[in-house]
Every structure is written in C-alpha cells, then in structure tokens.
Amino acid sequence: MDYYRQYQLKNYNSFKTEALAKIFCQPKSTDELRKCLADYPNEKKLIIGGGCNLFFTKDFDGLVICPDIKGLREISDEEEEDEDIFLEVNASENWDEFVDYCVERGFAGLENLSLIPGTVGAAPIQNIGAYGAEVKDVIREVVAMDLETNEVVSFANNECEFGYRDSIFKRTCKYFIISVIFHLKRTFVYTPRYFDLNKELEDIEEPSIQDVRNAVIRVRQRKLPDEKVLPNTGSFFKNPYITRDHADLIIAEYPDLPAYPQKGGLVKTSAAFLIDKAGYKGKRIGNIGTYPNQPLIIVNYGSANGKDIVRFMQEIQQAVKDEFNIELEPEVRIY
C-alpha cells in the first residue's frame, strides 16, 4: 500500500472542490487499514467513500483514507425462513450496482433506493432514504473497525442508533465500516408509499420489482442532475421537523405547504418547498446555484473553492429563516 503526500482531493468529492490531503492512502483489506492506522497513529483521520455527500473548503491536515475493500456474499441463517435472504456486502462496493444485483435476482427491499450515488459503506452512515424507504429498514448488522482500538466490532440494527439521515457512525466518526449485512425478501409486492412513484407506476396493474427500479430511475433522472455533468451532492439540506402550531402559521399563508405528521406531535415539511418560496429555486450566484428542477440540490457550475458553496448555502439558510423562521440543516458533510 502506497502513501501519497499533498494529494489532490478534487476527484474524491462530487462537488469537485479542490483541497490537498496531507497524507492519502487506499487500503484494500482490513489488514492494510490496520497498517495505515498504525503507521500514522497521531494524525487526524478522515475516511471517505464515493465522496457523494461531502465537500472540502480547505486542505485536510491529516490522513485521508479512501478504502477499496470489495466483495459480496450470500449468507445462510437456519433460524430464518426460506423467504429471507441475507447478503454481506463490503463497504467499497458501488451502491447502485448492488441494488441492481438484488433487483435482477428478485431480492426485495432496496428497489426504492435505486440510483443513489455512493458506496455501500456510506449507506448506514447517512441512513440513506428515498421514495418512502430508508436503508435502516433492511440492515441487519454493520461490521466496523473501531478507529481508537483497531478492533472489529459488530452493530445490530438497534445499536446503530438510526435516525433521519443519521446514525451512530455519523455522529461519532470513530468507526470504519467494513461491511453491511442486509436482510431482504425473495418475493415482492409493490406497496404504494410515495406520490411521484405511484404516479409513475399508475399504468401498471401489478408492478414488478424491476418496474419499480425503472420507475425510480426515471423519476430521479428527470428531477436530479447527473453529478458527472453538474457537480452536486444530491439533497443538500435535511427536511425540517417543526411543531404543529408552526406548520399551521405557515399554512395560513402557504396552504400547499407539505406537512406530514410525525411521532411526538411534530410535522415534517419540505426543504425544497421552503427554498422555492424563499426565492431560491433555480437561482444562481456566480458559479453556484440551485438546480432548476429541484431547489433542494445545490450545483457547482465551475468553482473549485468550497467556500463559494458555503456562502451560497448560508444565503439560502438566511432567506428561509427570514421567511419561515426555520433553520435548514445541511445533510452534507463540510470540511
């Protein structure tokens, strides 16, 4: 395994912002990972996957680890029924290629998460979700290395502390995910859960798992920019949770506010709606703007400086705060 000094990270974040890593390496096994941790015990560490949910505003003064640990295997569990299928997938496998693998074999549970960029290892960190599904619903176990002790530890689903775009791995930043064990089903029945997807499938009486994947891909491609053409990180902000009273105040002026009741009396609303009504749909300042088809996505039209993105982000946050008294929280990681 080689180490690189002052390594350019532009190709390791989907916003394509420039930054140098003091040290960079790509371990291909857990043994190589242990070696790089042992070789640089006192360096600050950052583990990155596909770089689809982060960007850089400055150089990283430490060790950047971009693992290349791949592999997939089916595992058996005598206590489970024949309906169940378990797959252990290593962290560096491409997420959408894995979803395609499952759909081709009729393994149900991931089809709504089609075309999400990134790696398998990033999925539980962010608890990725789309079209009424979250990855936490199909994760049985996460195998990780504790970066402080170099020990391999396993987390059952309930130990991962999954939340909305959140997990113990995201909050603590002290674990390197080695693999994820998924619990899927061998049979599939479509359950309507999301308006756009339901509408896309309305002419199909009994959608197959492949029909659902194809529909998700079509909807995403219409709404979302290709990061290879227009650098972006997908949804930039989390959808906010507000009180019922707060929602009612907004609805008095904006009757079409999306409002989804949640446990504890809160209401989940749409960050895209708020950004749109605050005047930032399709808005561009210099080389940074929101995507015209989806204001939740910030796109980079040509800046190499991550601070340009931060300034634009802060403008949106202030506009939404002024109009709705809601503070938008970034979904992406900013370094």
TrEMBL record:
Cofactor(s) needed: FAD
Record-level GO BP terms: cell division; cell wall organization; peptidoglycan biosynthetic process; regulation of cell shape
E.C. designation(s): 1.3.1.98
Family under the similarity heading: Belongs to the MurB family.
UniProtKB keywords: Cell cycle, Cell division, Cell shape, Cell wall biogenesis/degradation, Cytoplasm, FAD, Flavoprotein, NADP, Oxidoreductase, Peptidoglycan synthesis
Protein name per Swiss-Prot or TrEMBL: UDP-N-acetylenolpyruvoylglucosamine reductase
Xref: InterPro entries: FAD-bd_PCMH (IPR016166), FAD-bd_PCMH-like_sf (IPR036318), FAD-bd_PCMH_sub1 (IPR016167), FAD-bd_PCMH_sub2 (IPR016169), MurB (IPR003170), MurB_C (IPR011601), MurB_C_sf (IPR036635), Oxid_FAD_bind_N (IPR006094)
Reaction(s) catalysed (UniProt annotation): UDP-N-acetyl-alpha-D-muramate + NADP(+) = UDP-N-acetyl-3-O-(1-carboxyvinyl)-alpha-D-glucosamine + NADPH + H(+)
Major site of localization recorded for this protein: cytoplasm
Signal peptide annotation: none
SUPFAM superfamilies given in the database record: FAD-binding/transporter-associated domain-like (SSF56176), Uridine diphospho-N-Acetylenolpyruvylglucosamine reductase, MurB, C-terminal domain (SSF56194)
A single GO molecular function term of this UniProt record: UDP-N-acetylmuramate dehydrogenase activity
Domain annotation FAD-binding PCMH-type: ranges: 15-187
Top-level taxon of the source organism: Bacteria
Function: Cell wall formation.
GO cellular component: cytosol
Keyword Cell division belongs to the record: yes
